[in-house]
């Protein structure tokens, strides 16, 4: 694991990695976990869930967002996506737009590799000019 991780990063990484282990990915064998820290300092996590009737599966980020909304929170402060290998796993286009719904200009997206290397980007750099993103 990278030595320069903050306590927040470590919590998000641990939660995303735990969720990742429960991913249902029998078709791609690509297990992804995601964890969110919301505006109330609550944590939410999920994993990808594939379905034989593609594209009816759900990405880890979408599941974590659903868990956040179900808890009553409305804003993503940080989201971490845990990759199952040595490459960073950025959110797909659909998830970028889903994140935009609950992000602001300060929202950070953390990408983690299997060995704990971390890359952080501002959401606005990940999806500039997002549809409907007129916050702040």
UniProtKB/TrEMBL annotation:
Domain of life of the native organism: Bacteria
Cofactor: Zn(2+)
InterPro entries registered for this protein in UniProt: APOBEC/CMP_deaminase_Zn-bd, CMP_dCMP_dom, Cyt/Deoxycyt_deaminase, Cyt_deam_tetra, Cytidine_deaminase-like
Listed GO MF terms: cytidine deaminase activity; identical protein binding; zinc ion binding
Biological process per Gene Ontology, one example term: pyrimidine-containing compound metabolic process
EC number(s) given by UniProt: 3.5.4.5
Presence of the UniProt keyword Metal-binding in the record: yes
One Gene Ontology cellular component annotation held by this UniProt entry: cytosol
Cited CDD domains: cytidine_deaminase
Protein name: Cytidine deaminase
Species this chain originates from: Paraglaciecola psychrophila 170
């Amino acid at each position: 694991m990278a030595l320069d991780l903050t306590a927040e990063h470590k919590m998000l990484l641990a939660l995303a990695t735990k969720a990742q282990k429960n991913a249902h990915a029998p078709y791609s064998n690509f297990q992804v976990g995601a964890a969110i820290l919301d505006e109330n300092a609550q944590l939410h996590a999920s994993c990808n869930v594939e379905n034989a009737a593609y594209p009816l599966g759900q990405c880890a980020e979408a599941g974590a967002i659903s868990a956040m909304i179900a808890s009553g929170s409305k804003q993503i402060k940080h989201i971490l996506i845990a990759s199952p290998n040595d490459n960073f796993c950025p959110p797909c286009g659909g998830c970028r737009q889903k994140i935009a719904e609950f992000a602001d200009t300060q929202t950070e997206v953390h990408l983690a590799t299997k060995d704990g290397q971390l890359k952080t980007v501002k959401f606005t750099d990940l999806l500039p000019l997002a549809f409907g993103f007129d916050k702040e």
